[in-house]
Please model this.
Amino acid sequence: MPLKPLNIGLVGYGFMGRTHSNAYKRVNDFFDLEYRPVLKAVCGRTEAGAKAFAEKWQYESYETDWRKLIDRKDIDAIDICTPNDTHAPIAIAAAEAGKMVLCEKPLARTLKEAAPMVDAIEKAGVPNTVWYNYRRVPAVTLAKQLIDEGRLGRIYHYRANFLQDWTISADLPQGGAGLWRLDAASAGSGVTGDLLAHCIDTALWLNGSIKNVCATTETFVKERTHTGTGKVEPVKIDDACTFFCRFENGSLGLFESTRYARGHKALYTFEINGEKASIKWDLHDLHRLEYFDYGDPAILRGWKSIHVTDGDHPYMKNWWVPGLQIGYEHTFVHQVADFLQGLSTGKPTSPTFREALETQAVCDAVLDSAEQHKWEDVIQV
Amino acid sequence: MPLKPLNIGLVGYGFMGRTHSNAYKRVNDFFDLEYRPVLKAVCGRTEAGAKAFAEKWQYESYETDWRKLIDRKDIDAIDICTPNDTHAPIAIAAAEAGKMVLCEKPLARTLKEAAPMVDAIEKAGVPNTVWYNYRRVPAVTLAKQLIDEGRLGRIYHYRANFLQDWTISADLPQGGAGLWRLDAASAGSGVTGDLLAHCIDTALWLNGSIKNVCATTETFVKERTHTGTGKVEPVKIDDACTFFCRFENGSLGLFESTRYARGHKALYTFEINGEKASIKWDLHDLHRLEYFDYGDPAILRGWKSIHVTDGDHPYMKNWWVPGLQIGYEHTFVHQVADFLQGLSTGKPTSPTFREALETQAVCDAVLDSAEQHKWEDVIQV
Amino acid sequence: MPLKPLNIGLVGYGFMGRTHSNAYKRVNDFFDLEYRPVLKAVCGRTEAGAKAFAEKWQYESYETDWRKLIDRKDIDAIDICTPNDTHAPIAIAAAEAGKMVLCEKPLARTLKEAAPMVDAIEKAGVPNTVWYNYRRVPAVTLAKQLIDEGRLGRIYHYRANFLQDWTISADLPQGGAGLWRLDAASAGSGVTGDLLAHCIDTALWLNGSIKNVCATTETFVKERTHTGTGKVEPVKIDDACTFFCRFENGSLGLFESTRYARGHKALYTFEINGEKASIKWDLHDLHRLEYFDYGDPAILRGWKSIHVTDGDHPYMKNWWVPGLQIGYEHTFVHQVADFLQGLSTGKPTSPTFREALETQAVCDAVLDSAEQHKWEDVIQV
Amino acid sequence: MPLKPLNIGLVGYGFMGRTHSNAYKRVNDFFDLEYRPVLKAVCGRTEAGAKAFAEKWQYESYETDWRKLIDRKDIDAIDICTPNDTHAPIAIAAAEAGKMVLCEKPLARTLKEAAPMVDAIEKAGVPNTVWYNYRRVPAVTLAKQLIDEGRLGRIYHYRANFLQDWTISADLPQGGAGLWRLDAASAGSGVTGDLLAHCIDTALWLNGSIKNVCATTETFVKERTHTGTGKVEPVKIDDACTFFCRFENGSLGLFESTRYARGHKALYTFEINGEKASIKWDLHDLHRLEYFDYGDPAILRGWKSIHVTDGDHPYMKNWWVPGLQIGYEHTFVHQVADFLQGLSTGKPTSPTFREALETQAVCDAVLDSAEQHKWEDVIQV
Model:
C-alpha cells in the first residue's frame, strides 16, 4: 500500500532548513507511517541560493517569494526556517491559506507578535507544531516518561543551562548569514529567545507552568559592526541571561544562558531534584540520562548513567541496536514522525503553537524583569 | 551539473543492509561528490522479505538469487551484507563479473577462504572496500591524524576491548535471524570474527602490523538449540577471546572481547600509550576522544576530553555546528563518501580487500593460538 | 632542634572539633615547621562530653566554661567550633585576653554581629584566621594560582553551587546535636550562612569583590519540632537560596544552595569562564581540577581533568606520590600549616577575620535581597 | 579505661614507613579499640636518617640494626618496610623472637623465599598481616560485601590493570632511594611483584583461586645506570607484564601492569562481570564504586557511580559525613584498626602471611610463564 504524500514547502534554507529537510527525507526509512513527506519546494530570497539548495537536497522546485509558495495548490504544509522577525507574517498567511504550519522556534520575537499567530492557526484549524526539537531527544523523552510515572515525587528544584562560547570575539559582526542571531531587529533577543526558549519549553513540558520570574541580562561586547549598514552599532541583544523563578508546583527554577562560557559549545543541561529521585541530562552527551533513585538500597545509592539506546527507550526501536548512539539530527526526524502520526490519529504534535505561546510569555517576563530589575509575573496565555 | 549515478545492488537486508542503505541515501545531502548512489536492487532469499525491504527503503527492484543480481547489466556495485559464509562466493562472482564490490566485515570465515577473494578482486581490478566502519568515526580518524603527525612518539602499549552482554541467557538459540552470529557454520567464529576483527582492523591501521599472538578463548554456554535442526547442539563459537601480541613497532598489544560482560552493550574501546602522548576512545561515547599530552605544562597535565564536533575535525564540517553530535550510522555515510570520492580520484578506499586480509590473518593466528595453547606467528599476507 | 609549642584551647567538640583536632595532630608529620600545636584543653558545656573527647583525642585537660579556658595562662590560641551564635562573644573575649583566635565559619550570624569581632581582633593585634577550609583543597589553590598567572584573561562568568539533600525528611527536628543548623537562633540562617558562605569566600578570593546581589530563598518544610521547646515551631531558616550578582571585575555571578537536591551529599562546585580559559571544580572529586584552554590547538581543545596529586601541585609534595589522592580533612591540616608558618613569617593566614567580614556582608545582602525582593548593594567593609 | 599499648618497631623509613607510621598515630582518633600503638623505635641502616625520621614522626628511639630491634624486650610488633630482598630474614627472625609481624607486600621476591616465612610465622603462632592495603579502600571492601551477598551471580570475567608512567625516562638509574624497585636484586621483579601483586591479592580475595596463567613481559629500557656499581647495566626487571588466567570458579582473568602507560600515575582498576551484576573500581577515584545491576527495570539500567562516603559504607562511619571523601592513606589506618581489633578478638587480619603466599605463587607462575612462553599451573600453597 503506497504511502500518502505530504507536500512540503520549506521557507528558509539555512542551518534549520537542512535539519528539517533531512528529517523529511529520513523519516520513512525508520518509522512505519501512513504519510510520506515530499520535498515539493524550497523558498529563499536569493534565486541562486534557493536553486542550489533545491538541487542539493532534491526539492522538486524553488521559489523566491514565500507568498507565492503559500499560494501554490500543490503544497500541503509550510515549514518556516527563516529568522524570527518573519515567522509571524509567514505563519499567519499560511494558516489563512489553509496550510499546515511547522514553525522554527521561537514562535516570534515577542509575545505580542506571537499571539496573532496562534489565533490564526486556531481559527484555521490546521495541524501545526513548533520545532522545540529537544523534547524528542530519547533521553529527554525518557525523563518525561519517568516524571509522568511519578518516580520523582514532589519536585523541589528545576535548573537548566544553555552555555556556548561562539560570540566571544569582538570581531564578529551583527547580521548576515548565521549572524542574524546577533541582530536584535531580526532575532528579537539574544540568548533568551535563541537558547533559553529551548530550556523553558522543556521545563514547561516536564515541570509545568511558571508563575513569576526574576532575571538579569548582560551584553559583554557593547558594539559590533552591523552587516546591513556596514557601521559599528550598539549591540542590542542579551549576550547572557540568568533568571530564577517559581513554578506552579512550588518548585524553584534556575535558568542561565550565555554565549561567553569558554569551553562549552552547545551545553544545554537540565537537572530536576524530586523527593524520591533526581534526573540530569546534557546535550553534549545527549544519548545518556543520569538518574538517582533514593529508593535504591542505601549502600547502593548513586547516580546512574543510562545509555539510552535500547529498543524499549523512546524512539530507539526504530534505529539500530543497543549501545549504538544516535545524534542531534534525529530529534527532528522524531518530530516529523510524530507529526505524520498525528495526521493519522488527529492527535496534536506538541508543542503546538498554543503551547509554544507559553514559552513566549515566559521569555517576555524574563526580558521585562531584567530591564525593570524586579520580579515579573508570567502572563497566562 | 547532474551527478553521475552509481547503481547499487545490495545482497542481504538485515541490520547491515539498513546501515548501508541509509548511507547511500544520505551521502549526497551532506557531501559534495561527483557520484550519486542509486538503490537499484536488493537481493534476499525470501521474496516477501526482499520486497518489503525494497519498498521500505525505496529500492527500485528486488531479486531472490544473488547470481541474477550480479548478472544484471544495470548494476555497478555489489554490496554484500549476508552472513560470513556467503561472502566469498558472492564477492568472487561479482568481481569476475566486473562489478565493484563492497563487502561487510569480516572478509570471510578464515584466511583460507578470504585469500581467493582478494585474488579475484585484484585480478578484476575493480574498486572495492570492506566495511570496517569504525575507522570513520570522526574521533577515530582524528586519532589516526594525531598519530600520523607524530604526536605520540614511540608507542609502548596498544589495548582494545569489545565488550557486550547480549548472549548471556542460555535460552538464546544458535542460528536464525540475527542469531547466525552464534552458529559457527555461518559465522566462522564468535567474538573473534565479529568483534575483535574490528579491534584488529583499527589497530593495524593506527599501529601497524602484528608479528605474533598468544590467545585464549572460552565458550560459557556449551549447548544451545540450533534453529536449523531444532535440536540442542554444542556451541562451536568463542563467547570470549583474549590475546596479547607484539606489534612490528615493538609495542605490546592486548585485546579482549566477550559477549558476557554484563553492563556493556557495544563497548568498543581502545587506548594507545606513547612516549609523548596517549589516546583513548570508546564507542559508547563515540563523539569524544581522550587525549593526554606529556608536553603540557607539568601542573596542567591531564586527560582531555575532546568533543569531536568542530568543523576542523574529520568529516564534521559536512554535518551540523560545534557541540552537536552525530551517531553510529554516520560512519557508513563517511565510508560511502570516501568510496565515491575514490571513484573520482582513483584512490582506493581503505580498508581494501587486500588490507582486510591482514585482519583475517591475525584472526586466524588468534584462533590457532587459543586452540594450540601457544604463541602463533601471524602469516604475512 | 625541638619545635616551639603552640598551646591550643578548643571550644566545641562536634564535627568541626574533630576536623581541627586532627589537623593539629597531623600537621608536623607532614610539614616542616617551627611550631608544634599542643592539645592543651578542650571546652564543652557538658562535662562528660568534654572529658570523653579529651580522652579520645588526647587533650591534656578539659573545661566546661569557655571563659575559664580563655583565662588560662597556658593557652596560646583559642579555636572556636561552637554554633554560630556563640562565635562573637568567645572571639571578642579571646582577643581581649590576647589570645590568637581561629574561628569556624561563618564569622557570625550577621554582619552587625561580626563587625565588633573584627574590631576586637585588630585592636588586639593577634594572629587570626577563619576556617574557610576549601581554599586549601589543592585543586582550589591551583585554580587560584592559574588565575593569578593570568591564564583565564577577562572573566565573564562565575558560578557556584552547594547542593545537599540531608534535610528533606520532615521528621527531622530543629535544634539539638548536629541539628542546630536548622535552628535560626543558633545558626543565624540556613544554607546561606552554612553553605553559600563557603561559595562566597572562594569567589571573593578567586574573582574579587561583589558589588550587588539579587536573591531568592525558600523554606520547603515550614514547621519542625524544636528540640529546645519540644513543640512544633515554624522553621525560620532558608532551605534553599539562589542569587545572581555583579562582581567588581564586570563578571556575572550565579550562586545556588539547597539541602533539597536529592542525590547530592555535599556537592560544592564552581566554574569560572574566562576569555582565554575556563575552570571547573567539585567537592565530590576534590582531587581533580577541570581546565579548558582556548590556547590549545583547535582540533585538540577540550576539558582536561587534572589529577591534582603531583609534587608540584599546591601542598602535595608533603603527602604521598603522584596518583594517590588525599581527602577532605587535609584542607584543615593545610590551614594549620599555613597558620603556623605565618607565626614564623608574620604573614597573615587568609582568610583573616577582616577578609571573612566581606563574606558576611555578601550574606547579609543576599538575605536582605531575598526578603525585599529586589537588588541590594553589598556594604563595603 | 586506658588503652593497652602495642609497642611498634618499624624497620625501614621510606615511603611505606611513612604510611604505616601515620596509620599507627591516627587509628585511635577514629576507631574505638582496646589497644593503642606506641611508636617505640624505628630502624634504618643510616643513623642520621633513622634519627631524623624518629624525630619527625615522634618515635621514642631508633636503631640501625634490625637484629637489635628484634632483640628489644619493649617491642611487641615488628613492621617491615624495607626492600623486598630483606623481608624474609627479618620476618623469620622476628617470628622466632615471638614478635608479631606486619610485613609490606610482596611477602618476598619469590615463592621459594616466602614459604619459610610462613612456616616461621605459623610455628611461632604470632599475629601477622601483609600490607595489601587496597583491600581496605572502603569501595573495595564494599565490592567484597556485594559479592559475598551473592549480588553478582556467576562470574564470567575478572580484569585488572595497574598502569603507571614514572619510569619512561631512560635517564632514571636502577637502585638507590626509591629506585630499588628497578633493581632486580632488591625487588625480585618489576611490575609483577610491585603492582600486579596488588591486583592478584584483590582478585584472590574477591574471586577465589587462580588455576593457571599465561603471561608475557617486556623490558622497554634495556640498560640503566646502576647506583650500586655506577655502571650502565642490563635492566633485569619487567617494565610491563600481561597475563590471562583461569579462576577456579570458571571465570576468565585478564591482568596487565606497566610503568609505560603515559598519562596514568597509579591507575589500579578492576572490573568484575557477573551474570546478575558488574562492578568497576579505580584507584584514581578510590572513593567511588561503579555498579551495574541487571535486576534494575530495563529502561533504567545503567552504571551507577556510588560515592562511598556514607556511614553505612565500610569503615566510613569512623570518618566524616556523607559526601566528604577520604584518601589513600586511610587504607593503612583501616588495616591497623583491623589488626588491633584482631588482637582483641583473636581473628586473623587478612591477608595473613599464609594468604599472601598464594599471591606469591601466582606471581611465580606468571614470571615462569612469561619466560617459558607457555601456560603454567599455579602451585597450590
Q: What stands out?
A: The first helix of chain B runs from residue 15 to 30. The interface with chain A takes residues 15, 19, 21-22, 25-26, 28-29, 56-57, 164, 166, 264-267, 283-287, 307, 309-310, 319-330 of chain B (CB under 8 Å). The mean pLDDT of chain B is 97.
